[in-house]
Amino acid sequence: MRVTRAFLLRGVLPVAALAAAGALAGCRQGGGGGGGGGNEILVGHFASMTGDTSTFGTETDRGIRLAMEELNAAGGVLGKQFRVQTQDDASKVEEAVTVVTGFANNPDMVAVLGEVASSRSKAAAPVLQAAQIPMVSPSSTNPDVTKVGDYIFRVCFIDPFQGYVMAKFAREQLKMDRVAILRDQKNDYSVGLANVFNDEFKKMGGTIVADVSYKEGDSDFRSQLAQVKPQRPQALYVPGYYGEVGTIARQARELGMNVPLMGGDGWDSPQLVAGAGGPGKALEGAYFSNHYSKDDKSERVQTFVKTFRAKYGSDPSALAAMGYDAMKLLADAITRAGSPDRKALRDALATTQNFKGVTGDITIDAQRNATKPAVVLQIQGNQFVYRATVQPPDAAKSASAK
Ligand code: PHE
């Protein structure tokens, strides 16, 4: 039996059926599976190469491919060359499930990278968990993603931290007292981040003067903004994806709201500023939290920025950097595992410590998440300018435990 899309989409995913699918896949490939591909190591990448969030997929894939080329040029790992198979999910949850189902049915698949959007990672993860194929999300930040099971990892921080970062920056640096939230109610990431920001900002003594919802794909946000305006917020916190954020910013200005906007990593896109009317327009001066800054002076980051520019002719976004780190970290784990066996690889991923990424040093914790600092960036013209680094609250503690 193959796990078909219709089967997976019919109502709730039956856990027993998934386990059976995993067992079958296991039988076909024998043992821990993976690495049956002779002289190559096959890695799947499920990504939004087209659709509403196409820059998430395309940017991430660029980072992954740069990493793959560097790894292969240096001889690969365990004497094998990497081959990354990228498949488009069109920015759709159901397509993400279909794509990873195909990966799960391939006995040669060693590991899977993806997705960016938390809702898509969360929907796809049970398929890979059942098939016992390690999945590494480069940048999905919703806590639920890795809770799916012990084969599901990420190389980024999670939203309880990201929400804290922006609340702290708004309170301490910008001295904000009154903030309004606009959340995308169809997006797990947006809802989670909005909730954390709300809690943290209040804990720090601030007031949330309004909290309104919109839906991914909406293009008219005027009624929500009209609701918010009379509450006289000093800033709007909009933890959504870049497409809607640009339009929200424009419409807020049209309604005479000139306060700054703030957001999270979902803003990271080369198309963000254009969507807000262009450089110097509705998003000028806005702040958002992110995983990395290309302005980081460290040699590690500057070398990456230089090679990326030489290959693609543009600066690497945080998404590209996260894709690059996910691929390199995976290669490091396969080397430590000593084999591309999926179970051995899972165990090696779980014990990753101080991996030197371009987005920081990555240690995978017991929940299969990465504890890392975040940066706050400010939009100036077409640039995302570095403003601050915020350490995880317990950084001092874990540093002293080393
Ligand atoms: N963190 C976002 C999510 O979980 C995805 C994202 C990461 C978008 C980095 C842009 C940049 O949905």
Please give the largest β-sheet: 7 strands, mixed
Given this structure, which CATH class of the largest domain is correct?
Alpha Beta
Sketch the topology as an H/E string, one letter per element.
HHEHEHEHEHEHEHEHEHEHEHHHEEEEH
Q: Report the C-alpha radius of gyration, rounded.
A: 21 Å
Query: From the coordinates shown, what is the CATH architecture of the largest domain?
Result: 3-Layer(aba) Sandwich
The small-molecule ligands in this entry are:
phenylalanine
Sheet with most strands: strand arrangement: 7-6-8-9-10-13-14
Structural class: alpha/beta
CATH H-tier superfamily of the largest domain: Response regulator
The helix content, as a percent range, equals 40-55%
Average pLDDT for all residues: 91
Could you list some keywords that capture this structure?
single chain, alpha/beta, Rossmann fold, 2 domains, 15 helices, 14 strands, 18% strand, disordered N terminus, disordered C terminus, binds phenylalanine
Task: Give a concise summary.
The chain has 402 residues and is of the alpha/beta class.
Task: Report what the structure shows.
Helix content is 44%, strand content 18%. Helix 7 packs across helix 8 (188-203). The strands form 3 sheets. The chain has a 7-stranded mixed beta sheet with strand order 7-6-8-9-10-13-14, with helices on both faces. It has 2 domains: 2-157 and 300-371, 3-Layer(aba) Sandwich (Rossmann fold); 160-290 and 375-401, Response regulator (Rossmann fold, 3-Layer(aba) Sandwich). Strand 3, helix 5 (118-131) and strand 4 (135-137) form a beta-alpha-beta unit. It is globular, with a radius of gyration of 21 Å. The chain contains 15 helices and 14 strands. Phenylalanine is lined by residues 56, 116-118, 139-142, 189, 265-266, 268, 318-319.
